[in-house]
Amino acid sequence: MTTAQPAITVPAPSTAGSRRSLDHSAKYIFLLPALLYLLILGVFPLLFSLRLVFGAWNAGQKEITWVGLANIQRLLVDTRFWDSFWKTLAYVALATGLELILGFAVALALQNVTRGKSWMRVAFALPMLLPPITVAFTWKMMFDFNRGPVNYFFGLVGLPPVAWLAGKQAAILSLVLVDLWQWTPFIMLAALAALESLPVELYEAATVDGASRWDILKQITLPLIQPYLVALVLLRAIDAFKAFDVIYVMTGGGPGTSTELLTFYAYVAGFRPFNMGFTATISWAILIIMSIVFLLFLRAFRRIEEP
Amino acid sequence: MTSPGRAARAISYAILIFWTAFTLFPLYWTTITSIKSSQTVNLPVPTFIPWVQFQPTLQPFIDIFGEGQGYGVNGMGNVSLFFRNSFSAAFLSSLIAVILGAMAAYALSRFRYRRWKNNDIAFWFISQRMLPPIALVVPYFILFGRVGLLDRLPVLIAVYAAMNLPLVIWLLRDYFQDLPLEIEEASMVDGSSRFGAFFRIALPLAIPGLVVAFLFAFVFAWNEFLFGLTLTFDHAKTLPVQLAGNVTLRGPRYWDIAAQGLVVMLPPLFIALFLGRYIVRGLTLGALK
């Protein structure tokens, strides 16, 4: 390639050939580093942890001992795991469901206004990029029983103070509320972007035909926007399954084990009594559940990309 | 969209005012708590307005950057060190992710792969982003432990780069696809190699996209907690891990926690303001443009 190009418009066949072969290798040279990187730091550790599902490992131990199906058997009869499993499902369903409703409502509100819209968009997006640990502490302070502003406001309107983080149900609901605060904007702003991409002509035609606002929402907006909402909710659900940081700071899984969602339980089971095999087993259970949600998401996503 | 009626507009503004207050008040509360003295925080009734209801102080910030002076065994630790750790880990891992990611994204947008289709490769990458991090925690802990690499910053950098690589590839693939092909083709007709076309033409044109991808990667690495918690203890500890330690070490010294929290929050907050409308596009993996 270092030789000067001949001064003709059609390149000589040999040059074209060598370029094609270089391009051919470029194809792999560009892609392989990223691919190998993720194989080494993503796929290989996963396979290693699959080995742990059938093994036991303790700190200081060199090799993994083979225990067969013991971890899986233990998991199947572990009431703490199943308790955690159902609580996680409830948490994910409640959080994503409320985020869908609230997010869509605020998106419609944003669409209705013009003044202040652009800065509200940015302000509403802020919580999503904040470190979950700081979000957790912020809300821990807000929820403080004696000194927190939430109970203070409750007092102002005549409501009794709530033990936000100390009650079994209240603690889970507090976690949901924090998730709402941080992640409703995800549905909201994405739904707004989708709303704004809808063709104006449809609305004009419907208005000419005398359709009411409610009819327009039900007959035109919702059906058009539904595939986006499905994809967004599934994406949100995948992230909600990973909840860990906020629980770690706000409740530590408590009171008792009432806020021990799956990821947190997997961590506690592995790093407190140091039973890595069992943690790997729970992790694989989570992985399987999330793969199912991810496959659903892919189907929804492809429907948007290739209608 | 049809112009909304007066009632619809009034309801809309009511909803938006509520959500603005709901979003911003907790951030305001953290900010004012960070300039309260311990006496102010422990008053029986919460105070909201500095200078009017309480006298603000910078003592919490002096405390947290004072290298743990005055706290004895349960000291604050060296916040400056943890800040440097967090910054290096986030910065260097994002750099790696953007370099490897730009190459892969370019490949996916310019070449056609026959055995696996381009889309399948792209979806394989994004499936890596969906992995629950807890599934990697145990193997990382054991494997890095075996080779004596726990509590070392390079490990955190490598792990964060892997964590962000899929997102970077996904964002940049979109970006490269939207770049005009003609200039690259012209340069290759003029004798430039594919690598020359990439480094001298495509990459400079993609700088805005590279910056956005880098900032996203930076924020996610900066915010990361679970890997930091399990792979570092002391020397390589990051800010979120240090901050979380406040739960177990001491009672709720909210004024110090708020000051530390603010320090951890500020870089992502500035980046969020800078990213503006890109945030939604980045978080939805470019599904919405």
Number of helices of chain A: 12
Order of helices and strands of chain B: HHHHHHHHHHHHHH
Helical content class of chain B: over 70%
The helix/strand class of chain A is mainly alpha
Helix content of chain A: over 70%
| CA-based shape of chain A | globular
Number of DSSP helical runs of chain B: 14
Order of the strands making up the biggest sheet of chain A: 1-2
CATH architecture of the largest domain in chain A: Orthogonal Bundle
The third-level CATH topology of the largest domain in chain A is: MetI-like fold
Describe this structure in words.
The complex is a heterodimer of chains A (307) and B (289). Chain A has 307 residues and is an all-alpha fold. Chain A has two domains: 15-53, no CATH class; 70-305, MetI-like fold. Chain A has twelve helices and two strands. Chain A has a two-stranded antiparallel ribbon with strand order 1-2. In chain A, helix 1 (13-53) crosses helix 12, helix 2 (70-77) crosses helix 12 (276-305) and helix 11 (262-271) runs antiparallel to helix 12. Chain A is globular and about 75 Å long. Mean pLDDT of chain A is 87; it is low at 1-14. Chain B has 289 residues and is an all-alpha fold. Chain B has two domains: 6-73; 78-283, MetI-like fold (Orthogonal Bundle), CATH 1.10.3720. Chain B is 71% helix and 0% strand. Chain B has helices spanning 6-33, 38-41, 59-64, 79-110, 118-130, 134-146, 153-178, 182-189, 194-205, 207-223, 226-231, 239-249, 254-275, 278-283. In chain B, helix 4 runs parallel beside helix 7. Chain B is globular, with a radius of gyration of 24 Å. Chain B starts with 5 loop residues before the first helix and ends in a 6-residue tail after the last helix. The interface between A and B is large, with 106 and 110 residues.
